[in-house]
Amino acid sequence: MLDRIPLEAFRVFDAACRFMNFSRAGRELHITQAAVSRRIQGLEDQLGAKLFTRRGRNLSLTPEGDRLAQRVRATLEYLEESLEPFRGGGRETISIAASSSVSHLWLGKRLKDFDNESPSVSVRLLTTDVPSELASEANDLVILYAAGEHPRWNLTLLIRENLVPVASPAYVERRGLDAASLTADAMTQLDLIDYERANAHWISLRQWFARLPKPPKAAIKPRLSFSTYSLAIDAALRGEGVTLGSRGLIAEELASGTLVELGTAQLDTGYGYYLGMPRYRSLTPGAARLHQHLLGNP
Fold first, then answer.
1. How far is it, in rounded angstroms, from Cα 57 to Cα 263?
2. Chain centroid to CA 49: how far?
């Protein structure tokens, strides 16, 4: 069936769905309202289904039209994205992969700064917590949670992982806490916020308490648990309780005072976040510039 329906018909249908008005869709596509109507009628005839309900000047999608609209929009967006590397006006496109926590808490601002400084380079960020996707050699650069070595990537340390309990000043005040002298046993009675471990080496609240020189006797019962680390940090920022803070990832929040450390216990896990460049191929000029920028050597 697709070989009998021109791509233009789907573009016209998409515009009509977005505007719910054939005249406005025609103006965007530089064709007449009558031409839009003919193309929609032709598409309906080809598919054997009504796509719009017409009541005077008002349009609405039929159930069949609504299902098709969602699929057409997703397909056109995919095509637009696929064509991006071919129309950059000479811009080099590079890709970098990072976990959701690094992307949200650390990398985003630095990529924005790099974009302002390097208008000739387009950066595509892959955010994923799947280790195989992070370390895929399809990426130009990666940020990996590691101990310092990887068979396919040359790694340079960005952030050493040092974990401390943190909360917002509002939560500390509301609970009447002395943040600096809070003990581990006292922390177990607070509103604990945990997160899922996407990596076997990650440390969450239960593991953190268990590794203390004197682990608390009380059971660790988080009040909230999130699918990602960044969501746990966001909840702590909103004053919902206590979570683990990776000092390097939340350095700005600690410096600004939007999060404060609780007690004196800390854990250096021996892991960290490393910037990786390919071990067996050279970086492109744009990727090399981004590599230096993220290391703080623009």
1. 67
2. 38
- The token pair that represents 155 in the structure block: 């790694």
**Amino acid occupying residue 175:** R
Domains of the chain: 2-86 (1.10.10.10), 96-298 (3.40.190.290)
The answer to whether the CB of 205 falls within 8 A of the CB of 244 is yes
What would the pLDDT profile of 230-267 be if each residue is shown by its tens digit?
A: 999 999 999 999 999 999 999 999 999 999 999 999 99
Residue 291: CB atoms within 10 Å: 19
β-strands 121-127, 92-98: how paired?
parallel
Q: Which residues on adjacent β-strands are paired with residue 192? A: 242
**In Å, what is the CA distance from 242 to each residue of 178, 187, 233?**
14, 8, 9
Residue type, 99: S
For tokens 């505007």, what's the residue?
Answer: 19
Which tokens belong to 137?
């050699």
| Bridge partners for 166 per DSSP | 243, 261
